[in-house]
Amino acid sequence: MTTTLAAAPAPAPAAGRGPWQLARAELRRRLSVKISLAVVVLFVVMAAGAPLLSGLGGWSPDEFDKTAVDPYLGGKPLGALGGVSADHWLGVEPVTGRDLFARTVHGAQVSLLIAFTATAIVVVAGTAAGVAAGYFGGRTDAVLSRLMDLTMSFPSLIFMIAMMSVAKDVNRILLMTAVIGLFGWPGIARIVRGQTLSLKHREYVDAARVNGAGPWRILTRDILPGVAGPVIAYTTLIVPGMIATEAALSYLGVGVRPPTPSWGQMIAESVAFYDTDPMYFIVPSTCLFLTVLAFTLLGDALRDILDPRGSR
């Protein structure tokens, strides 16, 4: 007597799962993405809650504590690890005695605020210019493409230093945001322009045009959703560059001015004390390194998933 064994049914493909659902599932599968996202969320929450966190520590970022430093040793922090204690969780600044934890969390607020705002300017301006150049073509494309080339031809870091040095009596955070954003938009504009050139000849765009849809409707309903994936992926990769640029300008002395703290400024000030108080250098440097690394890993993963052709 023969027995017929029924084959196990093959798992049905995930029905109704669009590219964004598949991307989220792929992101959840990667351990590096989970860790990077946790680090990003940690620093964003730390920056958003900087006043509350410094209040919990009991010190404001500009408050001096002369009892935490030794005046007979050039203001060296008292105690081990740069003055780490129950009163000062990460130690204190040499000479001034300002709480390093309070200055670090407020420095995160300044650094991330400049980076995120400059990134928003870059993404909005670059996406608008790239879509307009790619979709309308002709003279519009020629003018915007030449403007991209002109902006990218400037030695941006030197020009930033010159502008920040000349403009003295202005809001430094606002000025840094505008200057960094001014030189960042052509890169993403070129990416969006190429994507738009590819999308505007697709069948569904031609069908919408034949059915009487105007340029604004086609751009908002058909073109922008098509370029959203690459834009999101490259936005995540732009953020660490913005954080590093702000830190570099502050390190060179043309960024945020004291007493307003930022990570770049703290690193610049800690260079003079790296041998006597290494914690003063390690704390802001570690925060800057982890933030840039987390955003870079997250951006690489998003680019691999949302824009595989661009990653190749």
Question: What does this molecule look like?
Answer:
With 312 residues, this protein is mainly α. It is built from twelve helices and two strands, in the order αααββααααααααα. A two-stranded antiparallel ribbon has the order 1-2. A hairpin with a 5-residue loop joins strand 1 (69-70) and strand 2 (76-77). The radius of gyration is 25 Å and the shape is elongated.
Give a quick summary of the entry:
The chain is an all-alpha fold. Helices cover 69% and strands 1% of the residues.
Rg for CA atoms:
25 Å
Cα end-to-end separation: 58 Å
> Quaternary arrangement of the chains shown?
single chain
Could you give the count of β-strands?
2
Number of helices: 12
Biggest sheet strand order reads 1-2
The averaged pLDDT comes out at 83
Helix-strand category: mainly alpha
